[in-house]
Design a protein that fits this description.
The protein has 257 residues and is mostly helical. The protein is globular.
Length: 257
């Protein structure tokens, strides 16, 4: 048990960043566990426990700050559940090197989102039938991403709310944490049924992530985000390159193409 305690500070750091950016801490936890040789299903399912714990803490804090759109968050959260079930099931047979390549692309997308999030424009939008269909499809896809990669799905939900629905970033990130409650919990249930997580490791990650979520929600009110976002974006890009390099060295790239 003692040799697993390092997972608590990992969850704490990931929880702070996940809460501030509305993405969930999986973009930090999953690469670290992957580099340390954890099988993809274990890394992903362990990360979802941290994502759930982080979303609970963040939702509590953001609720006190009155920054959550509850009706929208509940609807999008419920729409994501079928996708999380599908994502957990298809993650069972993914090869580690294929997972690294796919997750590398997710990290690149995350870094672009983080770096450009302040430039994402929010204007009041008219919710048309076409937009409703797009929102439903995006929520299902975000559920798949959440459960397959263990990252929560915020990379889809936050831009969807800001660009597609005209919500301010200040309310979109907190609302995303409410959505992640549903996405991560449903993913946890399916992954657990499939026997993927290590519950001791998941518990340590969840402890750190919970307190990181509380800290991150408070810091989001005052921290100067620009330098932090640049640093995180660079780290994610370097991580993505390392994942690609590891996969190429094992010959998995030719398998895909």
């Amino acid at each position: 048990m003692i040799d697993q305690l390092w997972l608590i500070p990992l969850g704490f750091v990931a929880g702070i960043l996940g809460s501030m950016l509305g993405l969930g801490g999986g973009i930090i936890i999953v690469p670290v566990l992957t580099f340390l040789g954890f099988p993809p299903t274990v890394a992903v399912s362990n990360s979802l426990f941290a994502a759930f714990s982080n979303s609970v803490a963040s939702t509590i804090s953001y609720s006190k700050q009155k920054r959550i759109e509850y009706s929208l968050g509940l609807k999008l959260g419920l729409l994501a559940i079928p996708g999380t079930i599908f994502g957990a099931i298809i993650s069972t047979d993914v090869a580690p090197d294929i997972f690294k390549i796919l997750f590398g692309f997710v990290l690149i997308a995350s870094s672009v989102y983080i770096f450009l999030s302040k430039q994402i424009e929010s204007r009041e939008k008219t919710i048309s039938k076409q937009l409703i269909i797009f929102i439903i499809g995006s929520s299902f896809f975000a559920g798949i991403i959440s459960s397959f990669f263990g990252i929560g799905g915020g990379i889809i939900f936050v831009p969807l709310m800001v660009v597609g629905m005209g919500m301010s970033m200040k309310r979109a990130a907190p609302t995303s944490q409410l959505i992640l409650l549903f996405a991560s919990l449903s993913g946890i249930i399916v992954h657990s049924i499939l026997g993927h997580p290590d519950f001791l490791q998941s518990g340590f990650l969840a402890i750190g992530s919970f307190f990181g979520g509380l800290v991150g929600a408070k810091l989001s009110l005052s921290v100067k985000e620009r330098n932090l976002k640049i640093l995180i974006s660079v780290v994610l890009l370097i991580t993505a390159v390392k994942l690609f390099f590891d996969s190429l060295s094992n010959g998995s790239f030719s398998f895909i193409f």
